[in-house]
Write a structure and sequence with these properties.
36% of the residues lie in helices and 13% in strands. Helix 2 links the parallel strand 1 and strand 2 (45-51). With 168 residues, the protein is an alpha/beta fold. The chain has 5 helices and 4 strands. The chain has a single domain, classed as Rossmann fold (3-Layer(aba) Sandwich), CATH 3.40.50.2300. It is globular. The protein has a 4-stranded parallel beta sheet.
């Protein structure tokens, strides 16, 4: 009974937020972020992912790492951000890698915008490839865990960008 009371208190102190993870191809990092936040932030966040020029299929190594970590993959799809125009996003987080000179899409809607640069594991070939996917996945886990811990009043562009710069 006490646990139920605490849970209701926690849920009543948060507002459900729509979050878009945005990149160019929507086949890897943004897909991982969508699946992670929908798992770690359920009951508080609804995560979506999209690309400005989507590839149209999810990277098989992304699916593999999600399945290995027992995260649902059923509703994931590589899609254009135009298919989500009907959703009012509270937060948009780009996950492309500026350090690698990737072009990051610019979201012009009325939302908090942040950038979490993650190296593209799909660009890594050979035996280092699985490690690159693990690294991207673990960076996203760390960042999303920090996001989920933020109180609603602390969710702002500065805090979200800070989260994007403090992960290994």
């Amino acid at each position: 009974m006490v646990i139920m009371h605490i849970w209701k208190h926690i849920c009543n102190n948060y507002t459900m937020k729509n979050i878009l993870f945005l990149c160019t191809g929507n086949s890897c990092r943004s897909i991982l972020a969508e699946a992670l936040l929908n798992n770690l932030g359920k009951n508080r966040f609804i995560a979506y992912s999209a690309g400005s020029f989507p590839i149209g299929q999810i990277n098989s190594d992304s699916l593999k790492i999600l399945q290995t970590n027992k995260l649902p993959i059923l509703n994931l799809a590589s899609k254009s951000w135009h298919t989500l125009e009907f959703i009012e996003f509270d937060i948009v987080i780009t996950v492309c890698d500026n350090a690698a000179a990737e072009t990051c899409p610019l979201y012009l809607g009325n939302a908090i915008n942040a950038h979490w640069g993650i190296s593209d594991p799909d660009k890594v070939k050979g035996t280092a490839r699985p490690l690159a996917f693990d690294k991207a996945f673990n960076q996203l886990v760390q960042r999303i865990e920090k996001l989920v811990l933020l109180a609603d009043d602390d969710i702002n562009e500065t805090q979200l960008n800070l989260i994007g710069t403090h992960s290994t």
